[in-house]
Structures are given as C-alpha cells and as structure tokens.
From TrEMBL, chains A, B, C, D:
It comes from the Bacteria. Residues 9-21 have a biased composition (Basic and acidic residues). One of its GO terms (molecular function) is DNA-binding transcription factor activity. It comes from Candidatus Abyssobacteria bacterium SURF_17. This is TetR/AcrR family transcriptional regulator. Residues 43-62 bind DNA.
DNA sequence: GATGAATGAGCCTTCATTCAT
DNA sequence: AATGAATGAAGGCTCATTCAT
C-alpha cells in the first residue's frame, strides 16, 4: 500500500519493484482480500487492486489463484507457529504461560494479525485436497507444540498430571480455535469475559492440588 | 444422494408436487450440495440436479440462491436445537448427560446428519451479514441451551459449582464445534480417542469433590 | 443469419429455437467463421455473433470451442463424402467420371461449399491430436472411395491398367487437395485453365491405348 | 531444438552478439517454434526461450510477431528455391531428374529441413494478406522453376511432349505439396511406397514412346 | 545490446437468473 | 407447476508488446 521510497519520478503510476519484494507484497495483499472476501469472493482483480498492480503481475509470481492461496496459507502457518513459539517462551511459570497463550491468541486473532488467523476458517471451505492437507498439518503442528510443552511441565512436576497433556492441549487449542471462528462470523458480545473465564479455568484445571 | 425416507409420494422423477413438499425436497437436496461443495461451489445447476428438478423451479420457491442458503441454514438450526433438546433429556444423571452430549454430537456430526453440521463451517465464510447473524444467533442459542441446563444441575447441587456454567458450556460446545470443523477438513486420525478423553475430562471437572 | 419464419412477435430480438435447430445453426455459423478466421482467430464471440446468439448458448450445445470445431469437421466430412459419392455416380463412362470429379471438386471448393473445403486446411494447423486424426481419417476415406472406384473400372476393363489404382487416386485427390489449398491462400490466376489441363491429363493417362 | 551447426561464436548463453547474427538466430528459433506450434500457438515467450534470449530482444530485431513470421517465411522461400535449384542440377537425364525431385522433396520435408517445409502449411491459415501473397509468390516461383526445366527438356527432345510442361509441373509440385501437408497432420502410413509409385508414374508419363 | 517488470486487451468459460411456453 | 432456451455479467488466465534500467 505504501509506495516507492527510492523511486523519484512521480509521473507514472506503478513503481517498479524487485521480484521478491513484489511477491511479498502480493502475498500480503492477497492475505487481506482472501480473509475478508473468501476464496471465491476474492477475485484476482480485487487482489491486484489491493496490491496496486494489474492482474497479470500476479501470474508472474504465482501459477494460479489456487497456488497463490496455498502460498498465503503457508505464510500464515509460519507466522502462527512462530508466534506460538514466542508466546510459549514468555512466562517461566507454566500456568501463567498457558493463560498467556489464551491472552496472546486473543491479541493475535483480533489485533495483531487478524487476517492471518481468519485464513484458516476460510481455507476450510475451499474443497481442495492440498489446501485441506495444509490445514490439517498446521492444526497438527500447533497441537503438538502445545502438547509437548504441557507434557514437559508435567514431567517437571510443575502442573497437575490429572489429565493427559494431549487432552489439555486439545481443549486449549480447540477453544481458541472456536473463538477465532466466532470472530470470523462477527460474534463479539461475549468475547472479553470469556477469555478471563478461560484463564481461570485453565489455572484451576492445571494447578497441583 | 437419495434423501427423504419420510416423504412418500415421490414416484420416480419430477412429478407434480404440492408446493410445500417440493420446497422441502429442494431444501434437503440443497443441504447436501452446499455442505459438500461450499456456497460458491454449489451451483444452482448442481442443486437442481440433486433435487431432480430444473433450475427455474428453485426460483419458484426461493428468491435467490442466497435466500435458499439462508433457509437451509434455518432448517439446520432447528434440526440441531431439536437434537440437542432430545439428547439433553436422555440422561437423568447430569454427568452422564454432558458426556452423552459429546457422544451424540459426534454421532450427529459424523453419521446422523453430517451435512447439517457442516453447513455451519461453510456458512461462516459466505461474507453476508444476514448469514453471519444467523450463525451467531444459532451459536448463542445452543450455548444458552447448554448453559441453562448446566446452571440447573448446579442449582440442584448435582454437579460442582467450581466453574461458572457459561464457562463449562462454552468449553463443551467450543470443543464440539472445533471437532466438527476438523471433520470438515478431513482430520480423522485422532477423532475416536479424543471423544473418550473429553468425556473423562468432563466428568472430572464437573464431579462434586 | 435468416431468422424466424414461424415466430411472429417481432419485438424482442432472439428467436427461441428448438435445440436441434439451434445446434445446426451454430455449426453452420461456426463453419464460416472457422474457415475464414482460423481456429484461433475465430473467437467464440465472433461465432456467437455470426449465429445471432450470445456466447453462453454455444456452451449449451458444445462442451468447448475445440469440441465445436471437431463437430464442424465431422459435418464437413460427411458433406464431402456424400458429395463425392453423388459425383462418382453421375457418369457411366469412367473417364468422364474422373474428369467430372475434378470439375465438381472445383465447384465444391469454390462455390457450393467453399468454407467446408477450407476447414481441412485450417484444421491441419490446430495441433490437436484428435483433430489431426479426424483429418487423416477423412483423407483416407476419400482416397479409398476413389481408389475402389478406379479399381472397379479397371477390373471391368474400361480404363487402362498401366498404373495402380491407388496411384491414380492419390494423384487426382492430391492435386485436388493442393488446388483447394491454393484457393485458401487466394491463388486464382491459374485456376481455370488448370482444371481443363488436368481433365485432359486424366483422360490421357487412363485411356486404354 | 539445438540449431546452428554453422554459427560458431555462441559460447553458452545470451552473449552479446552482432546484430546480424542475433537476428539470424532468432529467425532460426522462430522457424522451429512456428512450424511446430502454428502461428497462434507460437507465443513470443516460446520463441524467445527457444532462441535463448528474452522477449524484448525480439522487438529489437522485428517490428512485431507478424513481421517475424513474414521474415521466417522469406527465409524458408529462399531455402526452398535454392534446394530445388540444387536438386534440378543433379541429374543429366531428365527423367531421373524429375524422379529425383520427388525423392529429394521427401528428404527435404521429412529430414533435412522439415520445419521449413511445414511453414507453408502453417502460413496458409494465418489470414493476413501479406502472408498469403508471400505464399502465392513462392508457389508461383517453384512452379515456374519446374515448368521451365520441363519445357527445356521437351525442347531438347529428351522427354515426351504429350502433356504441356505446366501440367506436368503442377502435378509433380501439387502431389509433393499434398504429401508434405499429409506429413503435417501426421499421416505416415502410406508415405514410403507412395514415393516409389510416383517415381514410376513420372517416368511412365514423361518417357518418349 | 539486453533484461526485468509491467500491462491493455481479450479469450474461453461459468453462473445465477429470467422469460416464453 | 414446470421447463427449455437464453443471457448479462464476470472470472481466471494468457499474450503481444512496451518501458525503465
């Protein structure tokens, strides 16, 4: 959306960009359009417009609209995994950590990178096996990340072992996932207190008696 | 692909039908097509074919494709609420009841009326405010149904009051919702044991110490 | 190009036609456009315009532009074979017959169904294996028709057996084919006397000494 | 796909070249692409790739794709005329000469410069008056070359004067032309014996009784 | 001389929707 | 009540061609 800082002759319109830069910019623009308009609603024309280019440029960087979508998904996945890693490293106390996980998830899905989070709900309805595989893999990856972290906390004796780590992970991740889905459909009434409730619940369930 | 086991006077193909009956038949066919092909993938041609009629007939019963989709959603909502009511009435013991809720939810989303459940994931990406409102309302209704039931059980002193009823409801419903979303994207590896784990978890969290 | 002889209410534009009729009309229009503009030059828009319809109608009768082209080819083939059959039946005297073959070929390629003849030159450059196969098969069929006829004349002792029937057939058909190719590129200077020369040549080569 | 055996100072990839040399290289590459993919199928991208250069370079040497095609055609024409001249000079005995003409034509269209021969069938369907004029002129030139040669042989009393030289020329050239067209569409079944038959036919028709 | 980046124009095809019968 | 025929409006994608570097 921002343009040329180096190019100076401001008579023509579109600034020439290095390939890698433009590719990145298209991915960024496509992310927003896909997340807001869905796969089918996001026409190549809209994406091009959002990127400030003409349609054919898209096809110099991506084989097809589907390919572009997949690349956007992969970018979102990396983004989400990185974010989770960062968040899980933030607190020493495990209970605070998993509470923070929910807090930060809220921040991620509503503020920091809302569209990136929305992509997964959108992707789920595309009816393309590669896209579905990407979703499953990502879901698995996030779940594993969280499960391992919880298991470690248990093994270190820092949280209760009453429930299997994968159950707790599934619950935390599942609820988060569900809440982000609610955001997609515009549900905002119950949001805020829900997160606080969940944090209290997490503490309660994990605390060593 | 074949539908109605209850509808009876459909002989073989495209016979004159009473308006109400035909409408019902279109809704039934549309449900399957929408759930399997998404909103955009479900063309009016496919829906008509699935219903064994021609396209214009659709427009004698529904203003537009969008209208048809909304009606299908409303039908799914009724179906789901009724199902929940029935399930919640099944067990006297509350803990068995909420465990059964998960069990039956699994049955509903995978066997009994899978497509009806899938509609919600599909609907979430249509980017139409009326449709989104319908989703939110339905989600609210289900949540309220469950919350009230749990609150009653607490008031009757049958389950622990450690956690607020809306939190427990949100968790049970949220996980269920997430699991049905996983089904949509084809995840089936962890399904079975997950349900058992969840039931144990529910019991554990609700049991009076 | 001509419209409704039965439809009377001349207020709207496009006359409703029976499916078979319209299909035939599209084939006819497409023949002219393909023959004059080539496969790629003949856009579906031009074909639709020539048929006095809108583009989507084409797709109610043919899977694709390629499919339409193939159907036009098949129609041309039938037309050409029928024409040949008729011509070969016209004269009792074999020499007059083969001379007439050239005469009528000229008439066919320049007047009666010029575009049908042109299709083959156009088709030869489409680079599609099915289309090429159709061309080869047609060429074979015409050649066989002529070869058999010549062989019979020889066996009946009506023409000289100095040259093998397939050679004579190949020569007559080959020259005809070449001449129609010349018409395609607009060569018209030498046309007329060439046909007379050829007829004399044929007589000379076939006459029993 | 590799071309120039005569061009020598091309080291590996896209080196600076003298204008004339580069032009020649583009023409050579374009010939192959046009002959194999047709006018419309041969995109400037494919031509550039075959020439090992980028697209804009083409436009430094040729005004447009059409212009390039015309230049390729002119090159093919020179090539073909030269070849014919060489072949007609090979045999002293006229009958052997015209038989050789067919032999060498076969060699030319199938082995030595197949693509150059194919250009003419491709060109015939481009629907551009300049291109069609070029084809006609070339056809005329070849025909004249052959006619003159045959006329000389007749005047020298070496072959029968039963048929007018232009008729014999038209037949020989026409059949050759037709056979190369058959090659274009992939007909290869009857090829080999046909050439032998034709040679026998030529001898028979030209021999002085 | 050569290229990387960009685009206007247009093509084939699909789809929701209407209308005459 | 039902259908066959028709279409306006787009949508994804490609291509010849041009500029700035």
């Amino acid at each position: 959306m921002a343009c040329s800082a180096h190019a100076s002759n401001s008579e023509k319109k579109v600034p020439r960009m290095k390939s890698e830069e433009r590719r990145e910019q298209i991915l960024e623009a496509a992310l927003h359009v896909f997340a807001r308009e869905n796969y089918h609603g996001a026409t190549t024309a809209k994406i091009a417009e959002a990127a400030g280019i003409t349609e054919p440029v898209i096809y110099q960087h991506f084989k097809s609209k589907r390919d572009l979508f997949l690349e956007v998904l992969k970018r979102s996945r990396k983004d989400m995994i990185e974010w989770n890693t960062k968040v899980l490293a933030k607190h020493d106390d495990p209970i605070e950590r998993y509470q923070g996980f929910t807090d930060m998830f809220k921040y991620y899905t509503t503020q920091f990178n809302r569209d990136s989070a929305m992509m997964w709900a959108v992707a789920a309805t595309v009816n393309d096996s590669d896209i579905k595989a990407e979703i499953r893999d990502t879901d698995d990856a996030v779940l594993e990340q969280l499960t391992n972290n919880i298991r470690n906390s248990m093994e270190e004796g820092k949280i209760s072992s009453r429930h299997a780590p994968q159950v707790l992970a599934r619950i935390i991740h599942g609820i988060n996932s569900h809440l982000s889905w609610l955001i997609l459909v515009g549900e905002s009434r119950t949001q805020d207190w829900v997160y606080e409730d969940l944090k209290r619940f997490i503490a309660d369930v994990m605390r060593k008696d």
